[in-house]
Amino acid sequence: MDAIYTAAATATHGRDGRAVSSDGTLDLALGIPVEMGGNGRGTNPEQLFAAGYAACFGSALGVVGRAAKVDVSDAAVTAEVGIGKQGEGFALAVTLRVELPDGIDAETGRRLVEQAHQVCPYSNATRGNIPVELVVE
C-alpha cells in the first residue's frame, strides 16, 4: 500500500494520560472507564476507536451509495466498541449500527451496508481479527 496520508499521535501514561496528534489538533485527556476501575474522567481508546470507525464507515457508505445512485448522505453510523477479557489478555468486539435515511428499502440498505463493510479501511483492518456485527436500522 502507498499511503496517501499518515496520521500520528502520541499517548503518554497509557489509559490514564494524554493523547496528542502530531499537528496538535487532537489533544485529549485520557481516562480509564468506571467499569474498568477508573474515575471515568477523560476519553478512552475504545471511544476514539468507535469515533474513527463510525466516521470511516459513514464515508465508505457514501462511496458505495453514490456508485449505486442512492442518497445516503443523511445516514448515521454508531460504532459500539466493547472490550473484555479474553484468555490472559483483552479483546475487542464491534457493533456498527447504521441508521439509513427514509425511503431506502431494507434490501437496498442491507446491500449498501455490506458493500461499505468491504471497502471501509477500518473494516478491512479488523476483518478476521475481531467480531464486527452490522445492524441496519
Number of helices: 3
The description of the largest β-sheet is: 3 strands, antiparallel
The CATH architecture of the largest domain can be named as: 2-Layer Sandwich
Assigned CATH class of the largest domain: Alpha Beta
Question: What's the CATH H-level superfamily name of the largest domain?
Answer: K homology (KH) domain
CATH fold name of the largest domain: GMP Synthetase, Chain A, domain 3
In whole angstroms, the N-to-C terminal distance is 34 Å
What share of residues is helical?
Answer: 25-40%
Which stretches are low in confidence, meaning pLDDT under 50 for 5 or more residues running? Answer: none
Within the largest sheet, what's the order of strands?
1-2-3
Radius of gyration: 17 Å
Order of helices and strands: EEEHEEHHE
Taken from the alpha-carbon principal axes, the silhouette is globular
Family: Belongs to the OsmC/Ohr family.
Pfam family, one: OsmC
InterPro entries: KH_dom-like_a/b, OHR, OsmC/Ohr_fam, OsmC/Ohrsf
Protein name: Organic hydroperoxide resistance protein
